[in-house]
Amino acid sequence: SKLEPEQSNVSKSPLSPEKSSQTPLDDSEEKLSAEESKDRNLPDAQSNLGLWGDGRGEDELSPEEIQMFEQENQRLVGEMNNLFDEVRQIEGKVVEISRLQEIFTEKVLQQETDIDNIHQLVVGATENIKEGNEDIREAIKNNAGFRVWILFFLVMCSFSLLFLDWYDN
């Protein structure tokens, strides 16, 4: 209510250019009415200030309310401590997960090098198997040729013995 006359003076002036050309008597009447309303509101403000200043009035708490607020404060403090403990546990778990993830990454990189080594060994083994198969084929061919020579030698010896036996008879 203290601000109403000031707002009306401010709002009247900028809204209409006609009112800005009013007589000085109208302005003084408005000022007087604003001062009177201020004087009327002054005792109300002082009476409200007295209630606040004394600490009495509607805001005074009863012992039951004080006890209820203390219990609620204790409950809230307990909840906050529980939340704080949970946050600590979660932080510990996150740190543990981060550590395990680093170990996992290290092991994956180690496995990568192991897999590359195994790949190289498999490629080498495949080449060795191919060379071994070629050697076996060559050995089979050589073995067959050797058999032919032995067979030829045995046949020639047999014919020689038959010839010698025929020649002796």
TrEMBL record:
GO terms for molecular function: SNAP receptor activity. The keyword Transmembrane helix applies. Residues 1-57 are annotated as: Disordered. CDD domains: SNARE_syntaxin18. Its main location: endoplasmic reticulum. Keywords: Coiled coil, Endoplasmic reticulum, ER-Golgi transport, Membrane, Protein transport, Transmembrane, Transmembrane helix, Transport. InterPro entries: Syntaxin/epimorphin_CS. It comes from the Eukaryota. Syntaxin that may be involved in targeting and fusion of Golgi-derived retrograde transport vesicles with the ER. This is Syntaxin-18. The gene is Stx18_0.
